[in-house]
Structure formats: C-alpha cells, structure tokens
Design a protein that fits this description.
By secondary structure, this protein is α+β, with helices and mostly antiparallel strands. The chain has helices at residues 3-7, 28-32, 69-78; strands spanning 14-18, 37-39, 45-47, 62-63, 84-88, 94-96. It has one domain (3-96): 2-Layer Sandwich (Alpha-Beta Plaits), CATH 3.30.70.20. It has three helices and six strands; from the N terminus they run H-E-H-E-E-E-H-E-E. It binds iron/sulfur cluster. Iron/sulfur cluster binds next to helix 2. Its cofactor is [4Fe-4S] cluster.
Length: 101
C-alpha cells in the first residue's frame, strides 16, 4: 500500500513544518529529505522554501513535493523529537506526525 493510500490523502496537497522547540538536531530529516529539510548553524532543522532557502519563522511551512512524500513521511516517523508535522493544505489537518490521528 502506498503512503498516500495509507493516509487517505488522495493526492491532496500537503505541507510540512517543524517545531524547533522539540528538535534534537540529530539531522535524520536532512538525511532523508535534504531537498526539504536542512540543519542550520544553530543546530536545529528547518524546512526549505521553493528556492532552497531555510524558512526560519516559527511554524513556517513548505509544500511537500509528491516524489518526496515517502522521504518526508519517513522523516516524520523517525524524528526523535516528534516535531515534524505533515498536514493537508486544504484544511490544515495533520496526516503524519505526532498530532495525526
Ligand atoms: S529528525 Fe526531527 S529532531 Fe531530528 S533534526 Fe530533524 S526535526 Fe530535528
């Protein structure tokens, strides 16, 4: 079963954000999906915007490209800080991460 079928996201647009207050700085997310996550010199992970700049505003989100969905979901599952949140753009419901049902 694909990740999308499992979550019932049905190809809906998803976005991801990181709660830096809980980030341990281990870098797992940046290893899994370097196109989406990056560690800053402050030792915390941030999501990256369309032109690959780090988005450092609290709660900043970035779209999850479909080809990277599995990598992003794996990051959320493996994140030791439980601080990677993947949600639907349409209703902001979390579909992967600590607050997903
Ligand atoms: S996997 Fe989680 S805890 Fe580790 S660097 Fe990424 S956001 Fe931080």
């Amino acid at each position: 079963m694909s990740v999308q079928q499992e979550a019932g996201t049905g190809g809906e647009a998803l976005e991801v954000w990181i709660d830096q207050d809980l980030c341990t700085g281990d870098g797992i997310c940046a290893q899994y999906a370097p196109e989406v996550f990056e560690l800053d010199i402050d030792g915390l992970a941030y999501v990256k915007g369309a032109d690959a700049e780090m988005l450092q505003a609290p709660g900043a989100t970035t779209p999850v490209p479909l080809p990277l969905l599995t990598d992003v979901v794996d990051s959320a599952r493996e994140c030791p800080g439980e601080c990677i949140h993947v949600r639907r753009v349409s209703d902001r419901v979390e579909v992967y991460g600590p607050d997903a049902e």
